[in-house]
């Protein structure tokens, strides 16, 4: 006899786990939410929110430096590193505290503060000695930073996204290992706050950008803020209290190193072998992206734990799908997923939406180096590529690196989700002068490439560069 029983046991109290528990309980299940700390979501504690706080400080510093462009001179700029980091932590703690308050308001008897491991497909062993028996189990254990072996010996000179926000002051210099989303965002933020930054990556492509034209613009923009060393394999060592980095016959020394080489799923210690699931070389089961089911078992995996779409809104959606199917098992409901949508909060933002290109697809381009509103704001850098399927020209994807991309991306995601064509979007009002107007060049190019009606009566012909 198990100490605890329920319909659905959820392992992990982050975004995906909270959504799974909530939806399972909403559909009548008895639930348990198991987590060793209930510290708050990754987003609030070590992810989205503290990184955006650092980026906001960097934006303020950059704007002051660039104010002379407008004839406004701000002499004597001083960046107070301890004050910058103190605000990051203060606001971070407020966001995380709000999340913890929400968790604490869950009904009595749901929260179980412990670590869990499987002893069978429907039975869990807790590290406090108790056992849990559940009709279904949702795994929502998140992910953690991966630190390659050579960097593990750097002691307190090593940083990850889970420790960088605890710095009492900004470092004088920083090597960033990994040019993915986390590495790129934090590298640019630190550079704009006056830190000497060099970014290293074994790949030639930053942030997994899939469009060559967009990547060239991104790389050129990032090179203005930091040294880029792509296609390299940096080797670290300690030297006189700093980190020495050797690569391609070159050497440099840094006060700190941020390792941002990925966040693999937290599945070690779950003893997934006991579930009877077929596991791959990384110890991961096959997960159906539309039901979140692992194999054919009453086990579901959502959020960063499955490594599919490691984004907060996706984790929330996956958690809800997993929670609903955990109570419905074996009568599962396959959910249609929202259009893929990812933002990297560089300046300007980098956005990827939907599909890239497919056979017969048409692509339109907008150049933001000459876009009117971007020039007014002295933010005229960027490239946009919109993708549409032939023969009707309905939009299937977009790649943007331009000012306002994080906001325009939502409009484009809605258009793609609703099956709109380039012509449909051109018939929508574009106020002048706005950043959104810059999309019209790409939309017109698609309309010319496929047999679509050009909405000329609603497109009066704005000045070049709009």
Protein described:
With 466 residues, the protein is α/β, with parallel strands linked by helices. It folds into three domains: 4-36 and 114-144 and 264-328, FAD/NAD(P)-binding domain; 149-259, FAD/NAD(P)-binding domain; 341-458, FAD/NAD-linked reductase, C-terminal dimerisation domain (Enolase-like, domain 1). 29% of the residues lie in helices and 22% in strands. It has helices spanning 15-26, 42-46, 48-66, 81-104, 181-192, 212-222, 312-328, 372-376, 405-417, 422-426, 439-449, and strands at 4-11, 31-35, 111-113, 116-120, 123-126, 131-139, 158-159, 173-177, 196-201, 227-230, 235-239, 242-247, 250-254, 256-259, 299-301, 341-344, 350-354, 362-367, 383-389, 394-401. Strands 1, 2, 3, 4, 5, 6 and 15 form a seven-stranded mixed sheet that branches. It has a five-stranded parallel sheet with strand order 7-14-8-9-10, covered by helices on one side. The N and C termini lie far apart (70 Å).
Q: How does CATH name the architecture of the largest domain?
A: 3-Layer(bba) Sandwich
Main pleated sheet: 7 strands, mixed
Q: Helical percent range?
A: 25-40%
Count the domains: 3
Helix count equals: 11
Q: Looking at CATH, which topology of the largest domain would you report?
A: FAD/NAD(P)-binding domain
Low-confidence parts: 457-461
Binding site for NAD(+): 178-185, 262
GO molecular function: dihydrolipoyl dehydrogenase (NADH) activity; flavin adenine dinucleotide binding; NAD(P)H dehydrogenase (quinone) activity
Cofactor: FAD
InterPro entries: FAD/NAD-bd_sf, FAD/NAD-binding_dom, FAD/NAD-linked_Rdtase_dimer_sf, Pyr_nuc-diS_OxRdtase, Pyr_nucl-diS_OxRdtase_dimer
């Amino acid at each position: 006899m198990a100490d605890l029983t329920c319909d659905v046991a959820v392992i992990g109290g982050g975004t995906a786990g909270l959504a799974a528990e909530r939806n399972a309980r909403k559909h009548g299940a008895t639930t348990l939410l198991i987590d060793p700390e209930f510290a708050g979501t990754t987003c609030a504690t070590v992810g989205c929110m503290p990184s955006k706080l650092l980026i906001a400080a960097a934006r303020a510093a950059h704007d002051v430096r660039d104010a002379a462009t407008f004839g406004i001179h701000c002499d004597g700029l001083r960046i107070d590193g301890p004050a910058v980091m103190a605000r990051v932590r203060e606001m971070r703690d407020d966001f995380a505290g709000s999340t913890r308050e929400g968790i604490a308001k869950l009904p009595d008897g749901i929260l179980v503060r412990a670590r869990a491991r499987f002893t069978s497909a429907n039975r869990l062993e807790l590290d406090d000695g108790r056992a849990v028996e559940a009709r279904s189990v949702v795994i929502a254990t998140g992910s953690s930073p991966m630190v390659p072996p050579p960097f593990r010996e750097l002691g307190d000179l090593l940083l990850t996204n889970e420790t960088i926000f605890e710095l009492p002051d900004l470092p004088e210099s920083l090597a960033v290992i990994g040019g993915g989303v986390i590495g790129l965002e934090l590298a640019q933020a630190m550079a704009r706050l006056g830190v000497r930054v060099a970014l290293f990556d074994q790949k030639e492509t930053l942030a997994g950008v899939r469009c060559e034209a967009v990547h060239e613009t991104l790389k050129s923009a990032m090179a203005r803020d930091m040294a880029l060393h792509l296609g390299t394999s940096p080797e670290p060592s300690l030297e006189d209290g700093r980190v020495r980095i050797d690569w391609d016959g070159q050497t440099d020394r840094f006060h700190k190193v941020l390792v941002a080489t990925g966040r693999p799923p937290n599945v070690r210690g779950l003893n997934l072998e006991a579930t009877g699931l077929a596991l791959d070389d990384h110890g991961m089961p096959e997960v159906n992206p539309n039901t979140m089911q692992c194999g054919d078992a009453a086990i579901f995996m959502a959020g960063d734990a499955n490594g599919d779409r490691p984004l907060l809104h996706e984790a929330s959606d996956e958690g809800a799908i997993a929670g609903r199917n955990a109570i419905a098992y074996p009568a599962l409901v396959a959910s249609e997923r929202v259009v893929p949508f990812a933002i990297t909060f560089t300046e300007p933002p980098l956005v990827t939406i939907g599909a890239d290109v497919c056979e017969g697809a048409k692509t339109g381009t907008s150049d933001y180096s000459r876009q009117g509103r971007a020039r007014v704001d002295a933010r005229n850098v960027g490239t946009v590529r919109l993708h549409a399927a032939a023969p009707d020209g309905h939009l299937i994807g977009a790649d943007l690196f331009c000012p306002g991309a994080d906001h325009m991306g939502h409009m484009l995601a809605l258009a793609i989700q609703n099956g709109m064509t380039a012509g449909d979007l051109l018939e929508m009002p574009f106020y002048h002068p706005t950043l959104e107007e810059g999309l019209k060049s790409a939309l017109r190019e698609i309309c010319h490439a496929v047999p679509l009606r050009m909405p000329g009566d609603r497109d009066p012909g704005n000045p070049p560069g709009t």
